[in-house]
């Protein structure tokens, strides 16, 4: 879902247009209905909803506040209490650099880094993963909305939806060998993620096709849209193809040619993981502009 009207200046966005893009994207995903009815279909008033942001790149290439405000508004329309909405990322300093204010005030939407809220006391042992997990995921949340950014990654190939969950464990650097395969898929197959994830809303207002994960404006472009899906693998696969297309237009080699094809996306779709679909022939893609 895209809109040329979403951008007011280079890195500023019209909140009302962003909200409309999100609403229309959800209506397309769920084949009609009102945005409120869709939010109520996805979440109940009893849910504690964690919104996983991606803020490592600062203001230029992070989950934008306009997108997050629209999501929070949707959750409230479903009856989710403000105090049961948690915005989080790995480090509080990353959140602040992206323009968020750390807050744990009772009765309000919370915004916190794992470095403050802490990790699980026990080590999670699951497939190839041995990590402590953010308490937001392991203890508090009954549901998760993933809000990654559409971008290239210098080791993993791309960092879109599934890779964003490296920000819920204490030792992600341990799992960057072999372009993060199978580690991303293994982590996302754990019930704390697989069973709690209700929706992925990829912030592609500004996207990047080279030089990530930090913001490199020379390789960023105004995609001016959102990618929305309940299938984490399909969303990542489609995002990967968007980045490959942009790389080709810029005269760059493919991610396979430069040795960082994101095979973890294919692994996530295999018979062992079954997290979603990684085949364009089997993915229903709705490309809409408003």
Number of distinct beta strands: 13
Query: How far apart, in Å, are the first and last alpha carbons?
Result: 8 Å
Put simply, the count of helices is 10
Radius of gyration: 18 Å
Write the H/E string, N to C.
Answer: EEHHEHEHEHEEHEEEHHEEEHH
Which regions contain 5 or more consecutive residues with pLDDT less than 50? none
Which architecture would the CATH scheme give at its second level?
A: 3-Layer(aba) Sandwich
In percent, how helical is the residue content? 25-40%
Please identify the structural class as seen in this structure. Answer: alpha/beta
Number of domains: 1
CATH fold-level assignment: Rossmann fold
Describe the structure.
The chain is of the alpha/beta class. The protein has a single domain (41-282), classed as Rossmann fold, CATH 3.40.50. The protein is 29% helix and 19% strand. It has helices at residues 15-29, 35-42, 65-77, 92-97, 114-117, 135-140, 183-188, 191-194, 232-249, 264-268; strands at 7-9, 12-13, 49-52, 85-89, 110-113, 124-126, 129-131, 143-146, 149-153, 157-159, 197-208, 220-221, 225-229. The strands form 3 sheets. Strands 3, 4, 5, 8, 9, 10, 11, 12 and 13 form a 9-stranded mixed β-sheet that branches. A two-stranded antiparallel ribbon has the order 1-2. Helix 1 (15-29) crosses helix 3 (65-77). The radius of gyration is 18 Å and the shape is globular.
């Amino acid at each position: 879902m895209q809109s040329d009207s979403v951008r007011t200046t280079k890195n500023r966005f019209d909140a009302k247009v962003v909200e409309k893009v999100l609403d229309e994207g959800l209506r397309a995903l769920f084949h009609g209905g009102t945005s409120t009815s869709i939010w109520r279909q996805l979440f109940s008033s009893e849910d504690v909803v964690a919104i996983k942001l991606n803020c490592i790149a600062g203001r230029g290439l992070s989950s934008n506040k306009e997108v997050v405000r629209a999501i929070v508004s949707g959750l409230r329309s479903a009856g989710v209490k403000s105090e049961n909405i948690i915005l989080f990322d790995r480090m509080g300093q990353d959140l602040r650099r992206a323009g968020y204010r750390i807050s744990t005030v009772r009765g309000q939407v919370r915004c916190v880094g794992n470095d403050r809220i802490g990790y699980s006391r026990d080590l999670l042992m699951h497939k190839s993963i041995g990590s402590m997990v953010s308490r937001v995921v392991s203890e508090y949340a009954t549901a998760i909305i993933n809000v990654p950014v559409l971008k290239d990654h210098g080791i993993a190939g791309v960092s879109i939806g599934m890779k964003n969950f490296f920000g819920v464990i204490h030792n992600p650097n341990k799992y960057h060998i072999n372009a993060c395969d199978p580690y991303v898929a293994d982590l996302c197959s754990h019930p704390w993620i697989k069973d709690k994830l209700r929706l992925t809303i990829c912030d592609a207002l500004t996207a990047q096709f080279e030089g990530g994960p930090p913001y490199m404006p020379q390789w960023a472009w105004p995609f001016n849209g959102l990618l929305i899906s309940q299938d984490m693998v399909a969303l990542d696969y489609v995002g990967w193809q968007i980045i490959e297309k942009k790389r080709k237009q810029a005269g760059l080699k493919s991610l396979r040619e430069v040795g960082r094809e994101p095979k973890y996306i294919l692994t996530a779709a295999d018979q062992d993981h079954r997290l979603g679909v990684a085949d364009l022939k089997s993915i229903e893609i709705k490309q809409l502009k408003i």
